[in-house]
Amino acid sequence: MVRVPNVTRADAVAAVRNPLAFIAARWTPDPRTVQRAALAALVMSVIIVVTGGAVRLTGSGLGCPTWPKCTEDSLTATSTMGFHGAIEFGNRMLTYVLCGAVGWAIIAARSEKPYRRGLTRLGWAQFWVVMGNAVLGGIVVLVGLNPYTVAAHFLLSTALIAVATVMWQRTREGDGAPRPLVGPSVRQLVWFAVAASVLLVAVGTVVTGAGPHAGDSSKVERMPVDWETVTKLHAVLAWIVVTLTFALWFVLKAVDAPKGPLDRTRDLFLVLLAQGVIGYVQYFTNLPEVLVGLHMLGSCLVWIAVLRVRLALRERPETAIDLPGPASEAAIGTRA
User: Fold this and answer.
1) DSSP alpha helices (H): ranges in 58-181?
2) Cα 120 to chain center, whole Å?
């Protein structure tokens, strides 16, 4: 039988005062555990976007008509609220799963030895974005699914995916100074692709805000723009990203770039092709809900693939970092 260590009064006080430092002092996760924790947070950030899309596509956006409660009298959905109430309340509950995944990533990063301040900060950045987006989600409900707040809600989710992607990448590399693997002209081309992708996502939210899937069966305000025109602009931006990606692949081949950037660029090109096929099919088939949902998933995957191309253009070697002493450990834990 394994002997359970005695927990002193000082231990209990330390755990209450700074639980992260308390755990970090007694547990050192395997690097693979930290990587998996970061990946879990990234996967959940994508899932919450897709399930949020399901709420809108099923017309369940006001299934819980108020916030933070589901109704004025009930914290949870009731049987009388039916399918829409269950869908909306279920999506709200997934926010707690996302918080758990992000919390696990923070704990794992904080406990890794040697201590990596940057990695822990990326975890906390995710936490605060999740909290901000939860409040914004409540505002979306309270203002009756105003399309501008819905667009902001999606864009903040996109920012969460960006931070989660960076953290996942950082768990698989060292803390040394980044060394570029390609020249400045190639890096500039990739920044153009990133900027075009940001515009692509932003215009996509306008397409959603002006389109037919308002998120509820009742009359919901739409953005006062021509949906067909915005959709065509969205398609043009998509082709610009595809063209930049194709050009990048040829440039990387021409300069004999390392395998990493080439592989990430190939992955991005394949994801863009799949997303383009879904986009055109949904457009010409009157926007069936299933295809729109797949397109939202594809939007997340395109964004992750673009960021992975950017992150693949440099490497970070391992570097020796001194473990913090007892005094600095307490100070670091307070800040974390």
Assistant:
1) 82-111, 117-142, 147-170
2) 16
